[in-house]
Specification:
Chains A, B: This is Formate--tetrahydrofolate ligase. Chains A, B: One of its GO terms (molecular function) is formate-tetrahydrofolate ligase activity. Chains A, B: Keywords: ATP-binding, Ligase, Nucleotide-binding, One-carbon metabolism. 2 copies of one chain form a homodimer. Chain A is of the alpha/beta class. The first copy, chain A, has 3 domains: about 5-130 and about 255-430, Rossmann fold (3-Layer(aba) Sandwich), CATH 3.40.50; about 130-250, 2-Layer Sandwich (Domain 2, N(10)-formyltetrahydrofolate synthetase); about 445-530, Formyltetrahydrofolate synthetase, domain 3, CATH 3.10.410.10. Chain A is built from 18 helices and 26 strands. In chain A, a hairpin with a 2-residue loop joins strand 5 (about 110-115) and strand 6. In chain A, helix 6 (about 130-150) packs antiparallel against helix 9 (about 245-250), helix 8 (about 215-220) packs across helix 9 (about 245-250) and helix 12 (about 335-340) packs across helix 13 (about 350-370).
């Protein structure tokens, strides 16, 4: 078992040259743009040449509602990828990139854990290949061009009070949430209220992760709404003529990044949109590229299945035409106990009753996922304290739900610990049973889409909203945005909007407080709760202890 | 001759794999961290292992005062490097990196021109290897930690009115020059006035370019003054505990970048501090590494010799213990004519008299440079309209100054056009005649250092300043900063502070309007004029026309 901290295991990794990892997927060295010896981007020209090839099988890893006990969704994604490699399959993993800023607040983390990790860990928590910096630059170029446009005469007649495009930094900086800019006199423009979000909250990030190619990227960037005129007509990024230059800044960032697991399974780590006000999945271009190159692609979605998987299906798969072949739903005995009502301090003792109670959360997710027409397999991510009776209780429960549950020990053993899971997942995917369909049709009204998700996925009895919000949705429908999917922003800790309500609550009310149009990304965000788009640093930020040690390694980041 | 635009020549470059370029300097492939196939960083461990090796010869390229006619300092730097390679020497070039933001205002530029260029041009004008992004992140992490420190109790008792550390972005954004932050209530901290500078103006940039190694980098970062208390004692970055995390963010950026000229001469392109409020040279670590690996290192300094060369000698060489062996002073017939009083429209016709008049500027620089004890060679960067009589007039004049002038045709012919210059420069450097010494001793008072530069380099009759400024200098001396060199910030267009005063003015007055202490970088800035540290975009920003063409190449950036 893995008694060592993740960072130690990661540092001891026997990393292979990235060209060797690319070679496993048939990528010739000249089409890998290296960033050091252990990271590379896959060249656009090579990706363009893959069109027409047959796709591999797509496997989504999702989880029950997160608890402080931990579920290990990414760890299982990595473990399953390694398990597939181990049983002789050509497998690839697709996950999101980490945001730099938050690592200086709370400690950063591994991609995975124990012996199921993606490396290089330090770089992936720092600048990596610069994608997020490119997004920051592209976003802020547009911001500068908007204020510049107003400064030099405002041909577009932007209403200064209605500039909705803010600025971004990949930094936790509460001081930038609300600012007044352009102070200091005539030379500096027109003073106005605005602020900064963290880079992962940028619509540019969501677009990068949904765009088909550079042409589609530019089209979507141009369609972003940056402001409104006095008559409330929207001003688009293309009206400011920023879309071309933004695309140039994002050209390299659009190429997916290739790294490796500890067991040398290829991993595409690309893009990282927020899972609340955005869809929370890695880029479409990475997933598509992986599907062309590998027989099995294991990917994951943010948060629990009620948010992450729903958005993966209804936004990413719908828009990119992806057809998932199997879903792996991750649970831990400890997390099920918390869903069964136990406190974090009570998790060590065996408690089969609490596990059975908590299975209600698991069961709800199984049925929801089946509702999308995709076969479901449960992965029990093993922790050392789990008892055999507890594990058996989950397996029995899952069978009763018409699915199967596999105990996985990848944290302690790597891919060896997921062989059984990998074998079954491959069989199920190969059987071609998936009849994937999104939850609702494009033609449904925006309001009904929100209701549909709330009722069918969250089991809410009602969705409430001001008439102002409903009127806004109707206005967007009149402007031609009615076909867009909805992107729900609510707490990830419960099916309801109350983070304390674990298990499988019924009959609750979902209040929609605000709606936002991401016209370039192509979804309407329904905000059901407080969403923070610029985090702050804690009283004792992790940054205070981060430093290089004598060996030149990073201390304090993990 | 080169009739093609620089960008076309750059695109047609027959680029060699960067490992081959590194091989010319004896850098093994495993010590080159590639960024794509044509850029790499030289690994820190390899650099550390070079200690004790003999240094090559150091050649500084500088120029007469810049005019709208153009001098071609970087072009000559590149041409001389190629010329040295061509005559069989192991040569390397060291120049600064380009800032991303300004390229979206006015068009970006080549590193060099014609057939004397460094490539890849597009990448060098965009994200390159991410160094400036890393500096932006490190700078803004400190900013966030300062406001966070105040928010959580302000243990250091920072005076909110005296926070001097601002934020930075690599973007021309006038709206950010003066801002109020932390608005919106208790959760967002204490509102205060502040603003953003462009990244190249960050003290972090100056430090990265002067630091010996990562340990020295961290020490210097910790010594930066970020605020003052009510009792006016300084608060340092180390008091906020930001120095370790900033160093981690800058670890990769501290490794010099290696690229190549069109003729495959190795070029280190690393760091890019402002040439006004900072010293305007590439990094010490790049120059030192190049000196260990090449027999001849050609580098350049910002602006004309009165600013750039003076700072190169008095700040960079003094602090890094570098001993330049030869200075190449670049002039063009056209620029000399402008210094001789002609307008830009009058430059095409032969005018030997104007050339002779303009030589006063050249002569002043020659004598100034000789004053540092370093042999001077003049390079006449040839333009097609130059007449033989004009060229002869310059050569005669320069001989009268006790130096020699060589006609160079590298723009049209590459290294072939600088063979004569390269041969002589190598001979002079090899002869070991240089007796380099900085202009003033460390022990001189700060005020006298300013006077010394103004009188001996600018030929001013007087330096004026408020008693407030003199008192500030004395206060810094009392605090132990008296040994620092001064960094003059004045117009680059004249020896005087009047940009219209060409030639070799005498007896002018230099008014010092403001002084700033860069305690981490290690110099005191004397500002003699208006210095803009956050540019704005013009009415029609270049960004509006920047886009990818069908071939995926960048259009409109150049």
């Amino acid at each position: 078992m893995a008694a060592k901290p993740d960072i130690e295991i990661a540092r001891e990794a026997d990393k292979r040259p990235i060209q060797e990892i690319g070679g496993k997927l048939g990528i010739p060295p000249e089409h890998l743009l290296p960033y050091g010896h252990d990271k590379a981007k896959v060249a656009q020209d090579f990706i363009a040449g893959l069109e027409g090839r047959k796709d591999g099988k797509l496997i989504l890893v999702t989880a029950i509602n997160p608890t402080p006990a931990g579920e290990g969704k990414t760890t299982t994604t990595v473990g399953l990828g390694d398990g597939l490699s181990r049983i002789g399959k050509t497998a690839a993993i697709c996950i999101r990139e980490a945001s730099l800023g938050p690592n200086f607040g709370m400690k950063g983390g591994a991609a995975g854990g124990g012996y199921a990790q993606i490396v290089p860990m330090e770089e992936m928590n720092l600048h990596f290949t610069g994608d997020f910096h490119a997004i920051t630059s592209a976003h802020n170029l547009l911001s500068a061009m908007i204020d510049n446009h107003i400064h030099w005469g405002n041909e577009q007649e932007i209403d200064l009070r209605r500039v909705v495009w803010r600025r971004v930094l990949d930094m936790n900086d509460r001081a930038l949430r609300h600012t007044v800019t352009s102070l200091g006199g005539v030379a500096n423009g027109f003073p106005r209220e605005t602020g900064f979000d963290i880079t992962v909250a940028s619509e540019v990030m969501a677009i990068l992760c949904l765009a088909d190619d550079l042409a589609d990227l530019q089209r979507r960037l141009g369609e972003m709404i940056v402001a409104y005129r006095r008559d409330k007509t929207p001003v688009f990024a293309r009206d400011i003529k920023a879309d071309g230059a933004m695309t140039v800044l994002l050209r390299d960032a659009m190429q997916p990044n290739l790294v490796q697991t500890l067991e040398h399974t290829p991993a595409f780590v690309h893009g990282g949109p927020f899972a609340n006000i955005a869809h929370g999945c890695n880029s479409v271009i990475a997933t598509r590229t992986a599907l062309k190159l590998a027989d099995y692609v294991v990917t994951e979605a943010g948060f629990g299945a009620d948010l992450g998987a729903e958005k993966f299906f209804d936004i990413k798969c719908r828009k990119a035409g992806l057809h998932p072949d199997c879903v792996v739903l991750v649970a831990t005995i400890r997390a099920l106990k918390m869903n069964g009502g136990l406190a974090k301090e009570e998790l060590s003792a065996e408690n089969v009753t609490a596990v059975r109670e908590g299975c209600a959360n698991l069961g709800r997710h199984i049925q929801n996922l089946k509702g999308f027409g995709v076969p479901v397999v449960v992965a029990i991510n093993h922790f050392t304290g789990d008892s055999e009776a507890e594990i058996a209780a989950v397996q029995t429960y899952v069978e009763g739900q018409g699915a199967e549950a596999h105990l996985c020990t990848h944290w302690a053993e790597g891919g060896k610990g997921t062989e059984a899971l990998a074998t079954r997942v491959a069989e199920i995917a190969d059987a071609g049973q998936s009849q994937f369909a999104p939850l609702y049709p494009d033609e449904m009204s925006l309001w009904h889409k929100i209701e549909c998700v709330a009722e069918r996925i969250y089991h809410a009895s009602e969705v409430t909203a001001d008439t102002r919000i409903r009127a806004q949705l109707e206005e967007w429908e009149a402007q031609g945005y009615g076909h867009l999917p909805v992107c729900m922003a609510k707490t990830q800790y419960s099916f309801s909007t109350d983070p304390g309500l674990r298990g499988a609550p019924e009959g609750h009310v979902v209040p929609v407080r605000e709606v936002r149009l991401s016209a370039g990304a192509g979804f309407v965000v329904a905000i059901c709760g407080d969403i923070m788009t610029m985090p702050g640093l804690p009283r004792r930020p992790a940054a205070e202890a981060i430093r290089l040690n004598a060996a030149g390694e990073v201390e304090g980041l993990f």
